[in-house]
Amino acid sequence: QVQLVESGGGLVQAGASLRLSCAASGRTFSSYTMAWFRQAPGKERELVARIRRGDDTTYYADSVKDRFTISRDNAKNTVYLQMNSLKPEDTAVYYCAFSSLAYPPPYGYWGQGTQVTVSS
Questions:
Q1: 111 bridge partner residues
Q2: Per-residue pLDDT tens for 55-99?
Q3: Contact 9, 32 (CB under 8 A)
């Protein structure tokens, strides 16, 4: 069975850093596009960062550009999100998602999410 499990969230002060991890099991995802989404209360889920299958091209939302870095370790079937200079507006539940497409949507697999809370 395929499972995606996020970890690394927590409560931090503004300006701090966190590294989120998403470890997958059940199949090999080296040929999958991987992404991080987030959803704050009362808001739609938004794409935060994406790393494309094949060529590892990355994309970042304007709100996190220059602060967040997405990376992957295919040997470990894991995608990471390094989050620096965190701001209160980064507070959300963060989800990893994998797609078999080079140009998603859709994303076929989702994690359960990990809470990130940034205090002012």
A1: none
A2: 999 999 999 999 999 999 999 999 999 999 999 999 999 999 999
A3: no
Whole-number Å distance between alpha carbons of 47 and 27: 24
Strand partners, 47: 37
3-state secondary structure of 76: helix
**Residue 38, Cα to own-chain centre: how many angstroms?**
8
Instruction: Give bridge partners of residue 7 from the DSSP assignment.
Output: 21
Tokens of 97: 């998602």
34, two tokens: 């991987």
Under a CB-based contact definition with an 8 Å cutoff, are residues 100 and 31 in contact? Answer: yes
> CB-based contacts of 55: which residues, under 8 Å, 6+ apart?
none
CB distance 118 to 86 below 8 Å: yes
The 8 Å CB, 24+ separation contacts for 41-49 are 43/92, 45/95, 48/81, 48/94, 49/81
